[in-house]
Amino acid sequence: MDDNFRGQRRLFPHPLPKLDGIPSEAYKEALRRSEFPPILAPPLWTRCVPFKEQFSHRTPSESIGNNYSPRAKHLNIDRLKDKQHSSQSSSEKQAAGSSACPPGREKFSHHRRDKSSHASSSSEAEQEPENSEAASSRPLSPGEQLDLMCRQEEELRASQTEPSDSDMERYMYYINNCIPISEMAPYLHQHTVNIMKLLPPEPEDNKRDFQVLRENLLEQAEQEYYFSNQKSIVDYILMDPSERQRLSIFSIPKPFPRRVISAPVPWSLSYKEARLWQSQHLFVTCPIMVQMQDFWNERLSCLRFVKLENLKSTTWSLPLPPSEFEQFVQRQCQAARDELLQSWLPFCASLFVNLESPSLIPSTKQAAHAGFQEIFSCAAALMSLQLRGLVSASLQDLQEFFMIHQQGNDFGEMFDEMKHIQPQTLLVELQVEDTHIEFIPCLQECWEVIHRAFMEIVKSAEKLPRVRGP
Question: How far apart, in whole angstroms, are the C-alpha atoms of residue 456 and residue 179?
């Protein structure tokens, strides 16, 4: 009987090991996660990704766009439509829009279109009396603005509850423990430099205490930087009601209200009149002016009346006789002038011939004549500014070409061998006679040649035709 009893005892499993009383790390982590659910997702390509993004299966770009605002959390890239060309008719656009939607999303697009059209019609009906009332209403005084802001703050305070002790405890826990510093932008050294510029100089009598105080303040500034970023991230995530429910934080501390009071604007009427006059008589942002400026920047921004690259090429070998140099400048100026007449002027004229903007065509005949005159005057002024810039740039380039010899023959204490091989500009012959030396041509004629070169650039821009009205 004892043997049978021993055999039965062997059928029982071995006893469990005794607990040492200290829970494991895995148990601690599981217990902590059950009490404080995570607020951020594990480290991915992007930083500070909310935990809720794990259930959306979005791409990184969609995740960034959806987290820009809680109201845009359901936007997807595949719902974006291709941009339609303006040349299509309304029926073609409607057909293209309906064919562009997949069959599964056709119902969604029609529902969204009907809903938006209904909302726009209702909003227009509601805005008509409001706009008429707002147009005749006077601006609020500073006291009225302050009363209005206080009333709005009271309404907001009445609709929201104060955070409980549990909310504050969990709120501060997520700020201090759940937003790692490695996920945020680092504290830049330039911030410290900017703070140091605002500090007064160190006193002579208490220099040590001042240094300790400065180090403490700089350390506090860095801590406040990271704390403010952590608080902003937590506040932004808690804007989603579902996240508040998951994290069991139903209310957070309210920030101190910011009150900005606008001063009375006595010049509002004059501003509206000036703005209306500029929109009717100043055509700076007119499509024609923009196209003229774009054409100049793309095709003629590098144009010069005298191209100095040709002087340095192998075709022309410096130095040149004064007569040949003057002929070279004249040919260059004539070539630039011909290019302006053959490309720039016809393009500007074609813009007015093919005018298609209805906003630039006044309704009445008398207003049309005056309006067209103002448009042509504005275009002529823009063309004059472009020519003036061309002349100024050409003069500066020619001046820089002559400025390589501004130091003259004064080599100073140290002689530079490279100056000896610099190419000269004008070729002057020396003729020795009995007791004196003659320059052919004389130096005065050389100065006149240089002066005529600059004047040739100025004259090349004169009498160039502009676009003129009828």
Answer: 70
| Cβ–Cβ < 8 Å for 352, 468 | no
User: How buried is 451 (Cβ within 10 angstroms: 0-12 exposed, 13-18 middle, 19+ buried)?
Assistant: exposed
Query: Helices 365-402 and 287-295: crossing angle, nearest 10°?
Result: 20
Element (H, E) at 429: strand 429-433
Token pair, residue 18, equals: 């005794």
3-state secondary structure of 90: helix
Q: Where are the domains of the chain?
A: 154-247, 283-313+328-404
| 12-53 tens-digit pLDDT | 566 666 656 666 676 666 666 667 888 887 776 677 778 777
Both tokens of residue 64? 């960034």
Q: Note whether 306 and 397 are within 8 A (CB).
A: yes
Higher pLDDT, 91 or 350: 350
d(CA 328, CA 322): 10
Which own/partner pairs from 395-400 qualify as long-range (CB within 8 Å, at least 24 positions apart)?
Answer: 395/454, 395/457, 395/458, 397/304, 397/306, 397/308, 398/306, 398/308, 398/453, 398/454, 398/457
3-state secondary structure of 201: coil
Cα-based distances in Å from 170 to 163, 291, 341: 11, 60, 76
φ and ψ at residue 314, rounded to 5 degrees: -75, -20
46 φ, ψ (degrees, to nearest 5) = -100, 160
Dihedral, 196, 199, 203, 208 alpha carbons, nearest 10? -50
Identity (one letter) of the amino acid at 159?
Answer: S
Structure tokens at 14: 């071995």
CA nearest to 423, candidates 335, 308, 327, 323: 308
Taking Cα atoms as reference points, which of 149, 141, 147 lies closest to residue 265? 141
Query: Is residue 272's pLDDT more than 60?
Result: yes
Q: Does the pTM of the predicted model rise above 0.70?
A: no
Task: Output the six-digit token pair for 307.
Answer: 């191209």
**CA 85 to CA 93: how far, in whole Å?**
8
- Rg of the chain taking only CA atoms, in angstroms: 40
Question: CA-to-CA distance for 341 and 339, rounded, in angstroms?
Answer: 5
* pLDDT tens for each residue of 94-127: 444 444 444 444 444 444 444 444 444 444 444 4
Residues 183, 196: Cα–Cα separation, whole Å: 27
Q: How far apart are CA 379 and CA 381, in angstroms?
A: 5
Tell me the two tokens of residue 278. 């500029």
> Which pLDDT value is given to residue 207?
84
H or E segment at 41?
A: none
- The pair phi, psi for residue 206, each rounded to 5°, is -130, 55
Distances (CA, A) of 166 to 1, 171, 209: 64, 8, 41
Nearest alpha carbon to residue 382 among 291, 470, 459, 277? 291
